[in-house]
Fold this protein.
Amino acid sequence: MSPKLNVIIASTRPGRIGPTVAKWFSEFAEREGNFDVELVDLAEFKLPLLDEPMHPAMMQYQHAHTKAWSRSVASADAYLIVTPEYDFFAPAGLVNAIQAVMREWSYKPAGIVSYGGISGGLRASQVVRQLLGNVNAVAIAQSVPLPFVQQFIGDDGAFRPSEPVVDGTKVMLNELQRWTVALASLREPKTEQKAAA
């Protein structure tokens, strides 16, 4: 069975192009064949701002939306986060979603596709990389920035990447697969935990 990759649409704004971009990356990852791929729309979880009474490390969630998000994050072996850049920073909804759970991210690699204006969302990407490290995930060095993202959206609304974007995506997915395999033993429950379960 192939490891599971969650492709996460990080933008929750009305009128967003995140789903269009993420759909292409999800389908491309599926065709490459290294992962079982699930497209995950952060907007569907409707996560409020850190509304759980217990620290996320406790994993004692009280609310249905947090439990659903926890299951989604925990189900994956790796992540591909598709994020815009807002005001030279990552979207607040994505920051909140990463911080809403904690242990579910541990020992799993993440690739980042960022989009925006001339910077291609690289400043948002760097913020997300640091935050993922703080929850014990591994943000890989290979990322795919999309400068002036509208240039890749056709009149029909479909995402059409350039050759460098396609090439960069292949490199990123290959690295994600390698890290997923390398980190697998760290994601396995410890013997004592298995016995206690």
The two ends are 24 Å apart (CA to CA). Confidence is low (pLDDT under 50) at residues 190-197. Residues 163-182 form the longest helix (20 residues).
